[in-house]
Amino acid sequence: MLKDEIKFFFIVSFICGIFVLVFGNAHPVLIYNQYDFHIWQLITAHFTHFDSHHLGRNLLALILMSYLFSIPLFSKIKSVLLAIALIDIYIYLSPIKIYAGYSGLLYILPGFACAQNYNLRKYLQTFLMLFIMVIYSLYSLNVTHISNSIFWQPLIFAHILGFIAGFTIKLLEIAIEKKHRIC
Known about the structure:
68% helix
């Protein structure tokens, strides 16, 4: 399983690294920008970061979360695609002015693990993960960063949607697995 975690980390690092090398941080063509919107920003915004500290924190979190919440590569890809869709619908329909970063997608990992723990009837672990998610969300509401003259805050709802995507994919996999066992 560790090979999958390493592959996924290098895939994400490679994509983010290419964006930084070619375009720099927070390139206006790549970040989601309500005032200068292009359809590709719905994908590129997730792999573009406001500055190298933002990218570094997200990659460090990816390493730690991948180690703590190991899930199969194909499940991770399905969860990322669902999270991108959910987050994009949210940012497109909400009053969000700008968006960039991978952190919303990171939360597929604890979401997936939470659903797995719930299915295994590990209710204490499930509760603790949900509790930590709520505390983190409340803590992060008032954190403001300044990068390249851009004021930005973590988009907490993106984190929650990432968590929901991971949770949903795992529940769907469990349901399909149970259906196949019955047949």
